[in-house]
Design a protein that fits this description.
With 129 residues, the protein is an all-alpha fold. It contains seven helices and no strands. The protein is globular, with a radius of gyration of 15 Å.
Length: 129
């Protein structure tokens, strides 16, 4: 739980080579797991990493990003934060097109303000896992 140190070291790695997608990905992870105060920046780092282009996303990389995206989505649904729900869902679709249809439904429900439906879906999903 030494998030501040991990973030600082990873920032130094990014500063050395800002065009390395894997370094951006790792910074995004450190930020995501450090807590909500860092989530907007984490999303930006994940987005930058995707724009730069990963040479190869390993299954563990995808799993880690999905874990971060799920946590963010759950929290943003609880907060009824439509804009952040949409932003996270759009990024999530890029790394896992298999869940794109489900994420489109999440976006649609958020846009319509159907927060109780979303909250129930997330509660049910958490219970299943």
């Amino acid at each position: 739980e030494r998030f501040d140190e991990a973030i600082e070291v990873t920032r130094e790695a990014v500063a050395l080579h800002p065009g390395v997608a894997k370094a951006r990905y790792h910074l995004g992870l450190e930020l995501a797991f450090a807590g909500r105060a860092h989530w907007d920046e984490a999303l930006q780092e994940f987005e930058t990493a995707q724009e730069i282009g990963f040479v190869k996303l390993l299954p563990t990389d995808i799993h880690n990003m999905e874990t971060a995206y799920k946590e963010m989505l759950f929290a943003h649904v609880q907060d009824k934060d439509k804009d952040r729900v949409k932003r996270v869902a759009e990024q999530y679709k890029k790394i896992n097109p298999d869940v794109a249809e489900d994420l489109d439904t999440v976006i649609e429900l958020a846009e319509r303000g159907e927060w109780e439906t979303l909250k129930e879906a997330f509660r049910t999903r958490k219970e299943e896992t």
